[in-house]
Amino acid sequence: MGACALAFTASATAQSAWPDKPVTLVVPYSAGGPTDVVARLLAVPMGKSLGQAVIVENTVGAGGTIAAARTARAAPNGYTILIHHMGMATAPALYKKLPFDPMKDFEYIGQVLDVPMTLLSRKDFPANTFPELLAYVKANKDKVSLANAGVGAVSQLCGLLFISQIGVNLTTVPYKGAGPALNDLLGGQVDLLCDQTTQTAPVIKDGNRVKVFGVTTQKRLSSMPDIPTLDEQGLKGFEVKVWHGIYAPKGTPPAVRDKLNAALRAGLQDSHVKQRLAESSSEIVPVDKQTPEALRTHLQAEIDKWGKVIRAAGVQAE
Question: What SUPFAM superfamilies does its record include (predicted)?
């Protein structure tokens, strides 16, 4: 009895003293990309809240599955956590042999932000309005190309959803990244692209480099209020947001998870973080979504949603 009490006291003390060393925040994508930028923005205020440095570590490859698997296998002590976007939800349908289960192998810390997307065309595309775009695409489906950043990329998923809702099978052109896809759109080599505002907002604000047919959110963006949503233009229910969440290995103690969640909330209230995210048209999720349960619920809903789209399109990653 005494030994059990001592063990419990030692465990509680260790958790109350957590963290006593830096925390590693694993990013599944390369430095400088949208997810990496978010991670590095949050790392500083989260570190201040925790009283220890939060070190960003890029673990790249296989559409983010290498980083997720590494985090799932890490010691469940809160010192290795993961920030991942909606790739956590699409991976089960994209990969035949996934080395982790998004719904069983993690503890959920909270949602972070949503990055809207925009549907663009090259500047000399024949259509000027969304109704004109639909009419032209349906009449010239074999001639219209739709670029994306590669298999499993959010731009590909947005394109697949667009194709499924308009009922026209367009020619898709995969690239090795969002940058090359956007560059070829700007150069007139491809016709259409659906991509994140972190990539597209600068060229949209330039005024005459692309044509914009809509945003993929249910409401117009406060940063670009003149651009209508695809939903309000007839694609009812069309919504694609590049949402992000933070995860810890399964079995991470509740007290540690609570501290990580408090640090995340503090980071999202930081004025510098708010300013930088607003500049890229990214939207911090409401407070009620910054919770572990909200992330878990959203992840399951997104797995169900995108699983249907991916399986219907017959898309499979290597």
Answer: Periplasmic binding protein-like II
Q: Exposed/middle/buried for 221, CB within 10 Å: 0-12, 13-18, 19+?
A: middle
User: Measured between alpha carbons, how far is residue 232 from residues 8, 58, 219, 221, 238 in Å?
Assistant: 57, 38, 9, 13, 9
CA atoms within 13 A of residue 213's CA, in its CB half-sphere: 27
Residue 177 gets which letter from DSSP? S
The helix/strand/coil state of 25 is strand
Is pTM beyond 0.85? Reply is: no
Residues 123 and 210 both lie in one domain:
yes
For residue 204, is it within any domain? yes
| 314 Rama sector, left if φ>0, alpha if ψ -120 to 50, beta otherwise | left
DSSP string, 98-153: -SS-TTTSEEEEEEEEEE-EEEEEETT-S--SHHHHHHHHHHSTTT-EEEESSTT-
254, 108: one domain: yes
Integer distance in angstroms from the first to the last C-alpha of the chain?
Answer: 54
The 10s digit of each residue's pLDDT in 14-23 is 556 999 999 9
Distance CA 228, CA 247 (A): 34
Residue-wise pLDDT for 234-291, tens only, equals 999 999 989 999 999 999 999 999 999 999 999 999 999 999 888 878 889 999 999 9
Residues 43-98: tens digit of each pLDDT: 999 999 999 999 999 998 888 899 999 999 999 999 999 999 999 999 999 998 99
Structural domains counted in the chain: 2
Whether 287 is in a domain gets the answer yes
The verdict on 298 and 153 lying in the same domain is no
Q: What region does 24 belong to: left with phi over 0, alpha with psi -120 to 50, or beta?
A: beta
Task: Give the Cα separation of 159 and 181 in Å (integer).
Answer: 13
